[in-house]
Amino acid sequence: MRAAVLGSPVAHSLSPVLHAAAYAALDLAHTYSAIEVKETELENFLAGVDSNWLGASLTMPLKEVAFSFADTCDEFANITGSINTLVFREGIQAFNTDVLGIVDALAEAEAAQISSAVIFGSGATARSALVALHTLGASSVNCVARNVSDIERMAAIANEIGVQFENTAIHDSDWMTADVVINTTPLGVLDEVARDVLSPTGLLLDVVYNPWPTQLAAFWAVTGGEIVSGLSMLLHQAGHQITLMTGEPAPIDQMRSALNAELLSRGLSTI
Question: What angle do CA 213, 258, 14 make, to 5 degrees?
């Protein structure tokens, strides 16, 4: 059977490496590819899906438009307004595995007893990060971002799940003393800010992983803080996709080994 990652651009996606490794470890004769699909093309693509398809991973710009075609959505997709997984079983089932990918990445780094947290950014990944932090016990979250409508959307989610939410400018944020900091902004946005890092007390998860470490992660580590690559989130969210699509527990160790081998071949840092 078939599965694929859909989005634009997807040519350099690492998802095929992760899913193919899982299929091999589980002795499943499935295939997984990367297919360029723009927002306006998703409807036609889904119309062509037949019984040979297991499901699809979604990346930008499809995570929100997919709601128009889903028959059912899981709780995380509904609350975050973001879909990254489609399973073609009894119609089109939609899920958000980014939330649990973040949860697992932080848990693997032994980020225990999270009380306060800071999120840089306010897009789809930031919304998933907010819900993940709540799942891990965070009682308050500070969002450093500027997009008013996105911030209002995050505030509404925080209110729904019972998290104290505050939006501030970076100079008014206690980000270097928070238990966890999650950066969801694009590459380079926080390069200048990184120079202000000094003896952080918490853990930094930077979803940007190419190049790694980012400027922020490098300064964070060199001044004594602990860092987690977005590759860890990528690995674990893919693991949940494997389980949803195949019904089998994800072979995380084999997936990690395959991912690291691919990273080395691309001249990138491993996890």
Answer: 60
* Residue 167: strand pairing partners: 143
Encode pLDDT of 3-31 as tens digits. Answer: 999 999 999 999 999 999 999 999 999 99
Tens digits of per-residue pLDDT, 71-114?
Answer: 999 999 999 999 999 999 999 999 999 999 999 999 999 876 79
pLDDT tens digits for 241-259?
999 999 999 999 999 999 9
Token readout for 173 is: 């944020």
Residues taking part in catalysis: 63
Please give the CATH topology (third level) of the domain spanning 2-97+233-265: Rossmann fold (3.40.50)
Give the closest residue to 15 by CA, choosing from 66, 62, 57: 57
Domain boundaries, the chain: 2-97+233-265, 100-231
Report the distance separating Cα 270 and Cα 263, nearest Å: 6
Provide CATH code, domain 100-231. 3.40.50.720
Assess whether the region 2-97+233-265 and the region 100-231 belong to the same CATH fold: yes
What type of residue is 213? P
**Sheet (strand 85-88) strand order:** 31-36, 2-7, 53-58, 85-88, 92-95, 72-73
